[in-house]
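Human:
Class, as today's exercise, you are to examine the entry below, and be ready to discuss the fold:
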Amino acid sequence: MRKAKPKKRQILSDAVFGSQRVTKFVNHLMYDGKKSMAFNIFYSALEKVRAKLSDEQKSSLEIWEHALNNITPLVEVKSRRVGGATFQVPTEIYPERKETISMKNMIFFARKRDGKSMADKLSAEIVDAFNSQGGAYKKKEDMRKMAEANRAFAYFRF
């Protein structure tokens, strides 16, 4: 029997927007416990997004949330070993995991970009995700295509 699951920790909302989602994103962005630096990077990235997309009617937080929703995957493939063969079985993703995957993908592909500061890279990735482009969006589409290709094995889900 497995151990009991640990309790979920309460995540405090951030000071500027009052959003727990922002705090989760910043926690993923943070290195070495430097949360204030991560918040500064995030807020300056949102300011740069606001400058780049000045013709949009939405606020910078709404643009970021829309970009995050654009790169949120719906299905993923998991390896299942059945009868000596390994199958890529498409499975739906739980809502919390969807959010975590999209945040981590956005940060990962922002870090891989060329640019001077992390705020520049993150703002460029947010703009690309908002426009359904960029590395994080491509990753989501690749996951969807792989699940689509392997949907014949969906009955192996347990």
In short: Helices lie at 20-29, 35-52, 60-70, 95-112, 118-130, 134-149.
